[in-house]
Amino acid sequence: MSLPLWNAVDTYFSQVLLVPDPALDATLAASAAAGLPAIHVAPNQGKLLHLFARMIGAKRVLEVGTLGGYSTLWLARALPAEGRVITLEADAKHAAVARANFAHAGLAEQIELREGRALDILPELVASDVASFDLVFIDADKPSNPDYFEWALRLTHRGSLIIVDNVVREGAVVDATSTEPAVVGVRRLMERVAAEPRVSATALQTVGAKGYDGFLIAMVIADA
Ligand code: SAH
Ligand code: DHB
Ligand code: MG
C-alpha cells in the first residue's frame, strides 16, 4: 500500500528541510549496489531519529538491526565527539557493507558494529556491564520485538528512549487474530510496553516513501 502523493511529500520535505549529506547518500547508493533490500528508514525518518537523540542529549546509542548502516549514521551524526553507537547485525554481508559505509563517512571510530544474532549479543552486553544507553532503536526481526524490548529495558536508564520501527505494517497490527509472526511480535510488544510501569509510550502511524508503517516511542521514566 502506497500512494504517489506520499512519496512526493516525503521527497519535498526531505529536499526542503534536510541538509544534503554526501555520506548518507553514498550509504544508500552502496547498499543498493550491494543488493541489500531497501528497507532502511526514509531520510525524514532518519532525521527524526537524529532529532530525538539530540533532544535528549544522547551520548550512547544502541541499535538492533544495522542493514547498510543508514539509520546508524543518522544516529551517530546526532552525538557529541565522544558519543558512541553500538549496532547489532546478524547478516555478514549487511555487516560488511555497513562497516565500509561507516569508514567512508569517517565514523568508524564512533560506531561499533557487533556481528551476530541480537539475542546472543544483548545478553553479552548486559553480562559485560556495558555502560547504559540513552537511546535504543529496535529495527531487526519483528517476531523478537518483545525480547528486544526486555533487553533494552535492562540496558537503559531513567530518561532513555526506546524506539521501535515498523509497528503498523500497513495496518496489520490491529488484527488480533493474525498469526503472522511479525504482527504477533508487534502486538506482544505493545502489550508488554503497556504493562511496564517503567516506561511511558505512544505510537505513531507514518506514510511516505516507505509505505504505511509507524514507530513506537517509549521513554524510560523510572529507575530499575
Ligand atoms: N535500521 C536499518 C534497517 C534494518 S533492516 C535502517 O533503517 O537503515 C533489519 C536488519 O536486521 C537486517 O539487516 C537484518 O539482517 C537484521 N536482522 C534480522 N534479524 C536479526 C537478528 N536476529 N539479529 C541481528 N540482526 C538481525
Ligand atoms: C522490513 C523491515 C524493516 O525494518 C522495515 O523498515 C521495512 C520492512 C521487512 O523485513 O520487510
Ligand atoms: Mg525498519
Write structural notes for this entry.
- This protein has a 7-stranded mixed β-sheet with strand order 3-2-1-4-5-7-6, with helices on both faces.
- The model has no long low-confidence stretch (mean pLDDT 97).
- α4 links the parallel β1 and β2 (84-89).
- It has 8 helices and 7 strands.
- Helix content is 42%, strand content 23%.
- By secondary structure, it is an alpha/beta fold.
- Bound molecules: S-adenosyl-L-homocysteine, 3,4-dihydroxybenzoic acid (DHB) and magnesium ion.
- Magnesium ion is lined by residues 39, 139, 165-166.
The DSSP helix count reads: 8
**Subunit arrangement of the protein:** single chain
- Give the terminus-to-terminus CA distance: 41 Å
Bound ligand species: S-adenosyl-L-homocysteine, 3,4-dihydroxybenzoic acid, magnesium ion
Number of strands: 7
Shape category: globular
Biggest sheet details? 7 strands, mixed
Report strand order across the widest sheet: 3-2-1-4-5-7-6
> Which spans of ≥5 residues are poorly predicted at pLDDT below 50?
none
Tell me the series of helices and strands, N- to C-terminal: HHHEHEHEHEHEHEE
Question: How helix-rich are the residues, as a percent range?
Answer: 40-55%
Average pLDDT level? 97
Question: Which structural class do the helices and strands define?
Answer: alpha/beta
Radius of gyration: 17 Å
Beta-strand share of residues: 15-25%
